[in-house]
Amino acid sequence: MRSKQGRDAEPRSVIGWDGIRFTVPGDWNLTGVSGDKAHGYLKVDSPGTAFLQVKWTDPGRAAPRTPVQMLERIVRRKFRREATADGPPDLRGMLDAFLKDTEKRSRKIGASFSCKVRPQTEESDGERIALHFSWTGSGQGQGKVWHCRICSRTVIAQVVGQGKDPVANLAARIFGEFRDHGDDGWNTWGAFDMIAAAPSDYVLMAHKFLSGYMRLELTASGKGKIVLERWGLAHLARRKFSLRDWLGQTVGADRYAAVFEEVTLNEHVGVRGAGLVRSPLGVLQAVRDALPSLRPAVEYEACAWECDETNKLYAVQTWQPKASATIMGDLVTRCECH
Ligand SMILES: [Zn+2]
Ligand SMILES: [Zn+2]
């Protein structure tokens, strides 16, 4: 949905991805996303020539691939304090390499290139150290590279445009509200017109963005799985299905849920189902997915509701180990449907 949180009349859209969160003008859209737990890249395009690029690295979250890396990780966890005492990465070196690359691309098309880097600053009450930069060449860019002491992420982000684009204004607005980690143990997942959230220890396993259908699948080791789904044009998508049948058949809750009840979800009539993973194959898979934890996520909960104000259908499913505190209420509330 288009955010109502803008400070002025201009509508803003929320983009949220794995702890990264910012707003862009309402007519900008996410056009590129890639990465894993340790590295990520987002591109957000305006309808015109301006766009935003965000790239982050999170060395502490890289998945170990070799026995040596696994050992390194264990040592790093054991001596976390010493590891963080290594200090921030070489921001200036990273920025120089980035600008060199931008210069090369400008020169390739015969444009002259110049850039400015401001002295390093501390921001957000000392949470971040940052270098602000701007350049002109094939177009113009304004951005910054920073390291966050809280989440140990390094982020480089820039707004790029052509001569007529108000790049400085766009950058000031976007970077003014830019977050690089979740605030209260939850990460926003926002793209296009969906804004949802999940606990920050859940990582994205799969995502699907189709016109009229979006799906995010997240898992957390030892905690379970969350699936968030949203359909556009609810009245067409659901057709003659009741919400109960939609949740049971299309979303698939009939496989697990034994009990369904009508509930109010985000001020809408909704349905909630609860049950267990029962099939031997399902249980086996849950046991395997949980390893090394011995608590398979077999407790199932699902909610579906139709937002009549935006004509969208939402479904949230969770699989958690037995006797876990339910997170469904928070997941539904944080899913901003209207
Ligand atoms: Zn951070
Ligand atoms: Zn709604």
Entry summary:
With 338 residues, the protein is α+β, with helices and mostly antiparallel strands. The protein has helices at 67-78, 80-84, 91-108, 167-176, 234-238, 243-250, 280-290, 328-333; strands at 2-3, 12-17, 20-25, 29-35, 39-45, 51-57, 114-117, 121-123, 128-137, 139-148, 154-161, 186-191, 194-199, 203-210, 213-220, 224-231, 257-265, 268-276, 299-307, 312-320. The protein has two domains: 2-176, Protein Transport Mog1p, Chain A; 191-333, Jelly Rolls (Sandwich), CATH 2.60.120.
Topology:
Elements: E1 2-3, E2 12-17, E3 20-25, E4 29-35, E5 39-45, E6 51-57, H1 67-78, H2 80-84, H3 91-108, E7 114-117, E8 121-123, E9 128-137, E10 139-148, E11 154-161, H4 167-176, E12 186-191, E13 194-199, E14 203-210, E15 213-220, E16 224-231, H5 234-238, H6 243-250, E17 257-265, E18 268-276, H7 280-290, E19 299-307, E20 312-320, H8 328-333
Antiparallel strand pairs: 1-2, 2-3, 4-5, 5-6, 6-11, 7-9, 8-9, 9-10, 10-11, 12-13, 14-15, 15-16, 16-20, 17-18, 18-19, 19-20
Describe the protein in words:
Strands 4, 5, 6, 7, 8, 9, 10 and 11 form an 8-stranded antiparallel sheet that branches. The relative contact order is 0.11. The chain has 8 helices and 20 strands. The chain has 2 domains: 175 residues, Protein Transport Mog1p, Chain A; 143 residues, Jelly Rolls (Sandwich). It is an alpha+beta fold and 338 residues long. The protein is 22% helix and 42% strand. Bound molecules: zinc ion (2 copies). The site of one zinc ion (ZN) has 6 residues, from loops.
* Ligands and ions found: zinc ion
| Helical content (DSSP H or I, runs of 4+) | 10-25%
Count helical runs: 8
The backbone outline, from C-alpha atoms, is globular
The number of distinct β-strands equals: 20
Strand content: 35-45%
Rg calc: 22 Å
CATH topology of the largest domain: Protein Transport Mog1p, Chain A
Low-confidence stretches: 80-85
Largest sheet: 8 strands, antiparallel
Helix and strand run: EEEEEEHHHEEEEEHEEEEEHHEEHEEH
Structural class estimated from helices and strands? alpha+beta
Q: CATH first level of the largest domain: which class? A: Alpha Beta
Query: What integer is the average pLDDT?
Result: 89
CATH architecture of the largest domain: 3-Layer(aba) Sandwich
- Number of domains as seen in the coordinates: 2
Q: What is the CA-CA span between the terminal residues?
A: 7 Å
